[in-house]
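Justification of resources, computational component.

The compute hours requested in this renewal are based largely on the per-chain cost of generating structure records like the one below. Each record pairs the submitted sequence with a full structure-token output. That output is archived, and it is also reused by downstream analysis tasks.
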Amino acid sequence: MSNTAKESKPKQSTDVVLQEMWRIKDTLSASYGHDVDRLFAEARERQKNSGHRVVNLQRKRRKA
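The structure output for this chain reads:
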């Protein structure tokens, strides 16, 4: 088998932590119908209702 053929095969991860993160990501995505707009709308709503101060990096800084 040539080196190129070996490199074209997808590598299966044996890292259990990484596999668990992918599982969580897939479950979360599926719970919002794989709709990123719905996912972020819910995240913004939870953020707004949390009562915690949130940093907005998009605000323009005032010049001193």
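The helical segments are 3-8, 16-31, 36-50. The mean pLDDT is 82.
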